[in-house]
Predict the structure.
Amino acid sequence: MKRGLLIILSGPSGVGKGTVRKIFFEKEELNLAFSISMTTRKPRNGEIDGKDYYFVSQERFKEAIENDEMLEYAEFVGNYYGTLMAEVDRLRDLGKNVLLEIEVQGARQVIDKVPDSLSIFLVPPSMEELKRRIEGRQTESQDVIQERLDKARKEMELMNHYRYVICNENPQLAADSVALIIKRNIETTL
Ligand code: 5GP
């Protein structure tokens, strides 16, 4: 069986990665599987352990790093987030195209480690719009919002490391573009 692609969807916090992902993820012909990340962040209302994330302690996360279990990991606004290598390998070996929806430091590690990965960077139409989106989420305090915005400005500078850059002005259109890119890449690697 043909091994699945490794797809990285990244971009600054608040750009709408999750919203875009939910739209294109449903397309069956893309044969996608979502890699569930591990994090030390506390669950938000409605988030489920083992579905949205594996919510773990700092100790467990450090142990996973020491045991070389992580394909990538990063510290983001005071918490650790990372991708388990075993999870990705298992799904790719099943022929699934595995999607990583991750922040930019981790994405950089995967781009370096897996040169044939399909990396896609989402950008907001403007920084004003990004601010509006982060504030609209109303899950974070003012300090954290400011921290995420400052970080986003720096994160935007990394976009030239990616194979594709897509503007998320409209989530449906952005999702259609991502889907087309994935489809074309599946066809060319057949
Ligand atoms: P949130 O706290 O909003 O769920 O996630 C914060 C940031 O961490 C988002 O940009 C999200 O895409 C990113 N993230 C989620 N999982 C991972 C992961 O496994 N690795 C890395 N590097 N970033 C992740």
In short: The CA atoms of residues 111 and 117 lie 6 Å apart. DSSP finds seven helices and nine strands in the chain.
